Amino acid sequence: MIRRIAHSLFLLFFCIFVFNQLSGTVFAEEIKIKYIEVKGNKRVNTSTIRSKIKIKEGDVFSPEKLREDIKSIFQMGFFNDVKVETEGFEGGLKIIFIVLEKQYIESIVFEGNKELTIEKIKEKISIKPNSIVDQQIIKDNVEKIKKYYEDEGYYYA
Fold first, then answer.
1. CA 138 vs CA 29, 87, 104, 142: distances in Å
2. For the segment 66-115, what is each residue's pLDDT rounded down to a tens digit?
3. Which domains, ranges and CATH numbers included, belong to the chain?
């Protein structure tokens, strides 16, 4: 996570440096944020992501606040990665948050279970459709199903 944040910040500072060189402004000059955009989200609503962003259009650019916003978005738990790109926009700066959403469980299918009902098996697990894929939770649920079979007398399931 720290590598991703460091990489994003490096790209951000590089883009700001290039922007300043091209526009002829002095780096120490205050740069206003003119536009904020969110890209890459499919399931998570843009307004939900924007609610975690503290910087606003019209604010003076602050690397510290941007770093906090990246961290805040990442801590929502819905994303594998959060990157930031910047570009010149209407005499100021356009900030683009690019998110990579975690995979979701679309459906749960049980195959080969002839002795126990699907409803009983579903009662034993915590995974639900539309939840985020978490390999450890999947492993834990497989163990719960195995234990349920053992408890019911099926030791080689």
1. 51, 41, 12, 6
2. 999 999 999 999 999 999 999 998 989 999 999 999 988 888 888 888 88
3. 2-101 (3.10.20.310), 103-157 (no CATH)
